[in-house]
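Note to self: the last two entries modelled the partners one at a time, which told us nothing about the interface. This time every component goes in together.
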Amino acid sequence: MQEDVRFIQGNEAVALGALYAGLGFYAGYPITPSTEVAEILSDRLPKQGATFVQMEDEISSMCAIIGASLTGLKVMTATSGPGFSLMQEAIGYAVMAEVPSVVVNMQRGGPSTGLPTSVAQGDVMQARWGTHGDHSIIALTASTLQDAFEMTVEGFNLAETYRTPVVLLFDEVLAHMREKVIVPAPGELEVVERLRTSVPKGTNYHPYLAREDGRLPMSDFGGRHRYNVTGLVHDMWGFPSTDPKVAYDLLHHLVDKLENRADSMAHFREYYLEDAETLLISYGSPARSALHLVEERRKRGAKIGLLELQSLWPFPRRTIRKKCEGRIRVLVVEMNRGQICQEVRKTVSNPERVYLSNRFDGIFISPQDILQTLNVIGGKGI
Amino acid sequence: MLVKDYIRQRFFPHLWCPGCGHGTIMASMIRAIDRLGLQQNEIVVVSGIGCSSRMAGYLDFHTMHTIHGRAVAFATGVKMGRPDLKVIVPMGDGDALAIGGNHLIHAARRNLDLTAIIMNNRIYGMTGGQFSPMTPFGEKGTTAPLGNVDHAFDIVGLAKGAGASFVARTTTYHVQEMTRFLAKAIEHHGFSVVEVMSQCPTYYGRKNRLGSAVDMLERYRDGTVSRGSKKAAGSHDLIERGIFVEEDRPEYSSEYSTLVNRYTGTNESEER
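The predicted structure of the combined assembly is written out below.
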């Protein structure tokens, strides 16, 4: 069979990835630089019998996809920083009520309206801690459009598997760049379908009673089981409870189901790691510059490698600790004031050897920028 | 018909105060649903946050107790996900009109087939009696100890202006009328808003020296009038009850299905 080769924009790669994963419902509100996701889906979804709704704001967009998810559909919304801020309360609801949902954040410069058409990665911590209360969340990213497509499919798979919101934390450069994407044939990538309960009609179904493997089979609204969904601390019936044991167990479940799998479900790419004395750690579009520099320096005999993170949250701590072991220096390359760099420093045994190469002025970080940082670290001056 | 067939007795007693009007509204809603002969599995109740919103948990339908002000937005997702289901959205006045005002008017503009029940007790009860967007000018709340300087919404006028195709107002005193209006609203194919003037003797009543729950109900009896009646024509001081809007207009989920069918050539509702 002939390959489906396309030359497309990042937003389109994400939209196509979502459709590949079986997107059934999209709700969103226009915002730069993610708007094309909505534009493409507003054309594609109705034509295949699925639903597109343009809501009155990002708050309602997030709420609407949660509602639609409970009817049994795979759901997504897409936004950027300001809209992502507005979604936070409802994202917390999806965490608490364990509703599978996918949120795309094409990061732009912040805070506030910031730099609407410029690239940044300032929302890494907001993705982790944006909603209130103790919780865990999944955030994925990518540096190429092929990976963005695949991480979008993976985002849906993880959302369905763990009944959780998944943040696709891409950025403006990835959203607006164009490059080759080979759209996988149906069946080529794994697509996880929702786990539904086998409890028969007339038998008690406990929507929040986990199976032995920790998974909670769902029942669609309109289906044979009627149950309650709430953002309050709730028991196995989904009914509000203030019992300390119920609260303790629920919080444990919500956090552990993801954090205990942080390393086993982590996605990352390694380049020239075996003998690397200098290890770059990067993610999202800046990883392109990092890889470019690594390959340049390798040609000149430098022992340098790149660890590209595709899973940011839950943070794959053990993996990173292992990959950083024995390196002379670790340089985190990102487009913020060191949000992942801080996590790496917390993780490794020699935090003083972890350095940061960053830009946060709206200009895309270049291989030259990273080289300058390496020169400063190496005492060579700028 | 037994009301208890529609409630989750496991979760009782409920948390509403003695004399609260919300239980009366819940019972009326159940009677309306029973009268329409709807199956419990075809009804979804989506609520927000507040005293009124606890109703969702007590009812044996598909129920969703969401976040403050956003019930209509969640309900939009449910309805567009399963247009064949009846979606009922009970809200308090603060929930529907302050924090949730934007979602209410936009759902009305789309004329999406939801039934919004605004349980108007003129106060934020759950948080202890702060003034709401329905507290009249000059009245008292715990955040208006010196008298409210805000003005209240006219829910009927707001819903009408925003495009709701069914708009009605009634009170917890007029239970038969309420059941009738709720049945019509649930049956109506389009966005319907039913304002039910409810009583909060615990906070609103006490703060404003309105007496017991019975006294407050009697005020609804004496202070309201049926729309179009002779009595209504003779008085400007009485609040009108009745159906203010009942129009057959294109409904959002049906319009969307028509759009889909144009491209897929199938009837989506049959597919399901």
